[in-house]
Amino acid sequence: MIITDGMENASKEYNRRQVADMISLQQDIYKWNFVFLGANIDSFSVASSLGIKSGSTMSFAFNPIGVASSTASLSMYTSALKSGANNVAFTDEDYKIQNTAGSAVVNPTTSSGVVTI
């Protein structure tokens, strides 16, 4: 799980390409599932550049409603993974709640063909 406000981008050990390669290795070889939650940034663009699927990405409003609802969405997402569901993704409702809470960026894709939780 990656949670960020995008402010710490000065890593001296790894650049974006190296992080994307490490994520890809974990996804491909070890079947890890990555989730990207970002506040005050274009989460979908950043997550995509790291190889993280849009259905596993959410922009959240950095306020009490946004933080609480993103945590609830993440809990449901995690529970679905643990139950063995395939193609787990955040739902349109998850994104709508964040949009209502004040997040500037919502999921630019649709959830058709994706198991909703």
Strand order of the largest sheet: 1-2-3
pLDDT under 50 segments (min length 5)?
Answer: 110-117
Terminal CA distance reads 18 Å
Q: On the 0-100 scale, what is the average pLDDT?
A: 86
Outline, from the CA principal axes? flat
> How many separate structural domains?
1
Largest sheet: 3 strands, parallel
Rg, Å, rounded: 14 Å
Number of helices: 4
Summary?
By secondary structure, this protein is mainly alpha-helical.
Descriptive notes:
The protein is mainly α and 117 residues long. It has one domain (2-6, 14-101). 44% of the residues lie in helices and 8% in strands. It is built from four helices and three strands. It has helices at residues 16-30, 43-49, 64-82, 92-101; strands at residues 2-4, 36-38, 57-59. It is flat, with a radius of gyration of 14 Å.
Defining key terms:
117 residues, mainly alpha, three-stranded parallel sheet, 4 helices, flat
List the helices and strands and how they pair.
Elements: E1 2-4, H1 16-30, E2 36-38, H2 43-49, E3 57-59, H3 64-82, H4 92-101
Parallel strand pairs: 1-2, 2-3
Helix pairs in contact: 3-4
